[in-house]
Amino acid sequence: MLRRYATIDVFTNRLFAGNPVAVVLDAQGLSTRQMQALATEFGYSETTFVLPPADPRHTAHVRIFTPDREIPFAGHPNLGTACALADDMTARGIPVPDTLAFEEATGQVEIALWRQDGRVVGAELCAPEPLSCRAQIRAAQAAACLSLKESDIRIDAHAPRVVSVGLPFLVVQLASREALARARPDRAAYARLLPLDGAHSVYAYALDGARGAPDVHARMFTARMTEDPATGSATGAMACLLARLRGEDDLDLLVVQGEDLRRPSRLHARARAHDGAWYAHVGGHCVPAFNGTLALDGEVDQAPLAMA
């Protein structure tokens, strides 16, 4: 059986920038092992698989895989999947709604589509969980993970800590953009510390106070010692953390990521307080890259890891 897939560059308005995601549009009938094997073969930070929803009022059931494991939620894969489905509906003459609803392991995820001249050009999601703040670590431990000096770690606003709005990350504030540029993941330090309270990856950021500049520069390093060009779920958690620490009920941030990979990404993050909790909204532009078909007959040997 031939199955259709699309790849989308997310958090960018030009091709070959932002963070790519592969979207398997015809995933019904694939086993978990087959999905994991395909995600490993694509090699992107995430690959999504679109399945029929359990509730017909929803758009789809979506499963998200990294090359190593299935994860319950992620930012850019949801946005890319929404845009891929919108393009597919348009091509098949199906009216595209303003909001899509995905069923995922972490719960329902709603995604609002961005349009320009009647065409879908991006999307924004509301993270499925409010901000949760978890374990904290020492500055020296964070510095070791990032191959930096302890003085490169800022702790006046918050200690390095695990935070989540659906997928946990170890979030570390750095003293400068220059320190962020020097950061490199250290395998031994990662092995000593991670996973920690559900976090497998480190999200480092630096504030930028220059007029006309982005509010935040960020980088995210995975347990595979790879770097992510854009990380919506971590960006949303960071924005909510800053809003909570500043006592702001409404915080908008422009975050730039992927510069050091030559895949610049621009993420629009909003933190909103409601009933004492902070909720993340993350959006960005999306660009279709490739479309194709794949054939996968029979089971595969690769056993998936447990969901993160």
Protein described:
- With 308 residues, the protein is of the alpha+beta class.
- The protein has 2 domains: 2-126 and 287-295, Diaminopimelate Epimerase, Chain A, domain 1, CATH 3.10.310; 132-284, Diaminopimelate Epimerase, Chain A, domain 1 (Roll).
- The protein is built from 6 helices and 17 strands.
- The protein has helices at 32-42, 75-91, 139-145, 177-182, 187-193, 232-246; strands spanning 2-10, 19-24, 47-51, 60-65, 70-71, 99-104, 107-116, 119-126, 132-136, 161-164, 169-173, 202-207, 216-221, 227-228, 250-257, 265-274, 277-295.
- The chain has an 8-stranded mixed β-barrel with strand order 1-2-3-4-6-7-8-17.
- A hairpin with a 7-residue loop joins β15 and β16.
- The longest helix has 17 residues, at 75-91.
- It is globular and about 55 Å long.
- The mean pLDDT is 96.
Notable characteristics:
single chain, 308 residues, alpha+beta, Diaminopimelate Epimerase, Chain A, domain 1, 2 domains, eight-stranded mixed barrel, 6 helices, 20% helix, globular, isomerase activity, PhzF family phenazine biosynthesis protein
Q: Total helix count? A: 6
Q: What's the alpha carbon Rg, rounded to whole Å?
A: 19 Å
Strand order of the largest sheet: 1-2-3-4-6-7-8-17
Number of strands: 17
Shape estimate: globular
CATH architecture assignment of the largest domain: Roll
Secondary-structure element pattern, one letter each: EEHEEEHEEEEHEEHHEEEHEEE
CATH topology of the largest domain: Diaminopimelate Epimerase, Chain A, domain 1
Average pLDDT: 96
- First CA to last CA: what distance? 30 Å
| Count of folded domains | 2
Fourth CATH level, the homologous superfamily of the largest domain: Diaminopimelate Epimerase, Chain A, domain 1
Helix content: 10-25%
How much β-strand is present in the residues?
35-45%
